[in-house]
Every structure is written in structure tokens, then in C-alpha cells.
Amino acid sequence: MKTRRLGNSDLEVSEICLGSWLTFGVGVERDQAVACVHAAFDEGINFIDTANVYGRGAAEEFLGETLRGVNRHGYIMATKVFFPMSDTDRGLSRAQIEKQLDASLRRLRTDFIDLYQCHRADPDTPLEETMEALTRAKQAGKVRWIGFSEWPLETVQAADALPGVEKFVSSQPQYSLMWRRPEAELIPWCRDHGISQIVWSPLAQGVLTGKYKPGAAPPPDSRARSDAMGGFLRKEWLGEPVLRAVERVGVLAGEAGLTPAAFALAWVLREPNVASAIIGASRPEQVRENARASGAVVDPALFAEAERLIGEALGR
After folding, report:
1. Number of domains comprising the chain
2. Range of 64's domain?
3. 175 a catalytic residue
4. Which end of the chain, N or C, is more open, meaning fewer C-beta atoms within 10 Å of its C-beta?
5. Which among 54, 75, 116, 175 is annotated as catalytic?
6. What are the DSSP E strand ranges found in 96-172?
7. CA-closest candidate to residue 281, choices 43, 103, 5, 68
């Protein structure tokens, strides 16, 4: 497992990050979830991403219990704040950041968060208030570094221009062969300002693994068949043109000596500004398979052909 420096921080994160959205504490049986965490460590993954809202605290609780007794300096923990935790608890106000950070620390059973991320921008709170609260959290030693997820670029730029506050070191956008919007503006700007990408859904909610076949019902253990997880899949990604293109990309993956999943992850990691790709696993075998993407050397012509196939299927 190779590592990359996360923006202007001192964090060396594994190229593959173990995520917990829709899985730990919610969509995956506990024994399997524990096995996934152990498999991640066995593969050299040192980076774990979660959020307070995942299962309304359940994912953080699970990780806190599972990581009890593990050397705290042996892994990098990232969590997030913004989405509602109750009818009255949401957003990025000073009070909410302080309250939700302390709650995350308790659930994760740790004294500090390596990377504290704003899950979305908060239009109802002055940006200065949010950034000052994050700065105080770092000064208090509760947070080592800060990041954001899916913020409008103009808001990121405004935060960067504020004097006397901490700077972001990470961005967490959706990015995959299916979803390439960050390439236009976000990645170039971040590259010039010491901010790395930690990308979510690099496998397009599992579509790029090739598990969904044209004209066939989704597998019974897939996200598309799950009440808890299926609502986040884009319908067009399960359309026949896209699934046929994904099958052809699978052939390219074979030529590269990789599984379709590892090929899709390697494609994301071809971008130097990407520090890590977040995987969501329901079985330890998936963790091991995905870990193969780290350090994979792939002919750029194969990636170019994959981009053409997917782009044509999506009408790009």
C-alpha cells in the first residue's frame, strides 16, 4: 500500500481509504464490518473516513468500539460535520461545531480527530464564524487538520482568503470515471493551493465493479437491491448503454491485469491531486481486491479508451 501526502498537512495517507457511509453501523452486519476493518489494516490501509451523520452516530460508535486498543497513532481518522443530528442540531455554527466535535470524539473514543471536514457548506452561518470555530478546534488540540466536502469553489476561495484562520488541506468530492466534474475547476485550483482530493464513490456506487449486468436484475447482495443503500444510485448508471460500456471497460481491466474495481480505482489515482480513494466494503474480500489498485501501473491508452467508452455511454 502506497501513501501520499495530504495537501499541505503532515499526514501521509494510504492511497485507499476505508469509508463507512451506508455500511458500518447501518447496512453491513457487525461481524462483516469488523472483518473489513481488520482486512484494511492487513492491507496497509491507514486512513479511515466517517461522519457524525452516518447512521446518526452509529458509524462512529462502531469505529470507536472496533478500534479500541489499537495504537491511536497507527491510523488516520477523518470525520465530518454539517448534516442534521436531530431536529435542532445541524450546520456549521460555532455552537454546532463545538457540540458535534465533542460528540464525535466521545463516539470515536479518541482525544483528537486527524482530519475534521465540513460535510457541506452552510449558507445560514457566516463563513468567518465557521472558520474561526475550526481554527479554535485545532488550537485546542481536538483537530489536527481541516477539510471540506462538496463546497462550491467560490466558498472555498472565500475561506482561503480569510486572514488569521486555518487553511483547508483536503477536499472530498465525488469523482469517478462516471463523474468527472471536479476536473474542470476544483482540482486545478486545489492543486495550486495545497489541497488534496479524497474522493468518494470512485466505483460509482459499485457500478464500475461490473456487478450489474445489462438486462439482468441486480444481485441480491448489491446496493441497488438494498433499501438502506439503493436510493443513492443514479438511475442512468444502471441503464443498458452504460452497463454495456462498463462490460467493455472490464475487458480493458483484464488487459491491465486488474479487476474492474481495481482498474476504476487506479484510474482515479492516476490524478496526482488525488491523495486517496474512499472505498465502501461489505466484505473483507472487497477490501483486499480494492487495495490492489494502490501502485498499479496501467497503460494510459487503456485509461483513455475507458474514458471514451464511458463518456459515449453517458452522452458526454
Report:
1. 1
2. 3-207+268-296
3. no
4. C
5. 54
6. 113-118, 143-148, 168-171
7. 43
